[in-house]
Design brief:
Blueprint (H helix, E strand, L loop, with lengths): L3 H13 L15 H15 L1 H12 L5 H5 L8 E4 L5 E2 L2 H4 L21 E4 L7 E2 L5 E6 L8 E5 L2 E4 L5 E5 L4 E7 L2 H6 L5 E6 L11 E11 L6 E3 L3 E8 L1
Length: 241
């Protein structure tokens, strides 16, 4: 299995506030966009394998070493258009600028093959000479088959606290989108796909017994290139024994 599904899940959970940043990754920003950009910069410094390993350690999730060894950053290749813009402003300000940040894309929400649009916003005092207001981000899908939608019925709960029973009410998750290399994607069957709910104490928000919607991580087994995109959730019944 690829590290990509784990990466997408952990990235999304930290951005949405349902997971604490792992050890070695300090986030001080409170604004959602600034926090996401700080997270992105931190992951770039750590490296994706180290980030995934640190997040997995939080939950006690065991990921085979072979998944770390086989990770290829090209799986997440993206291109942005325009790649450059011309700006003008005071010399002492412009001379120190090497790049302009156009925002943050939550990869867990991205549908491969579809472009994402970001607004280009400059700091006060800078002028966008080219008057280009948006940038388009696309992801490299060469060698990938057409995205495939399946229904996932194998839904499992992990990390439920002692004395708490977490029962899945949702019978299946429909229209789960899978992407990957064409040959592997075609060979995937529903039995190869698992939805996993992390019911760790920090993820349970109801007080006492009750029902709660949990994020579901989609795990595709027996493949190196196929993974799920999009965000999915299931309804669970929580009973305190």
């Amino acid at each position: 299995m690829s590290l990509v599904p784990y990466y997408l899940q952990y990235l999304s959970e930290i951005c949405e506030g349902t997971r604490q940043a792992p050890e070695g990754l300090a986030l001080s920003e409170q604004d959602d966009l600034k926090k996401a950009l700080q997270l992105q910069a931190g992951i770039a410094e750590m490296g994706i394998p180290a980030f995934v390993r640190a997040c997995a350690a939080q939950d006690g999730t065991e990921i085979p070493q072979s998944d770390y060894d086989s990770f290829d950053p090209a799986e997440l290749n993206a291109s942005i258009s325009p790649a450059t813009i011309r700006i003008a402003g005071a010399a002492d300000t412009v001379d120190g600028i090497e790049s302009v940040n156009a925002g943050f894309i939550n990869l867990a929400r991205v549908q491969l093959g579809k472009a994402e649009t970001l607004k280009i916003q400059l700091s006060e005092g800078l002028v966008n000479v080219d008057d280009v207001q948006e940038a388009t981000v696309t992801f490299d899908t060469s060698g990938y088959g057409e995205p495939r939608a399946i229904t996932v019925s194998d839904i499992r709960v992990v990390n439920a606290p002692s004395g708490v029973d977490v029962k899945v009410i949702t019978e299946s998750i429909n229209n789960v989108t899978l992407v990957g290399e064409a040959e592997e994607l075609a060979a995937i069957s529903p039995s190869d796909v698992i939805a996993q709910v992390d019911a760790s104490a920090q993820n349970i928000t109801v007080k006492g017994s009750g029902q709660q919607q949990f994020s579901a991580q989609i795990i595709v087994t027996g493949t190196k290139t196929v993974f799920a995109t999009g965000a999915y959730s299931v309804l669970c019944d929580i009973t305190v024994k």
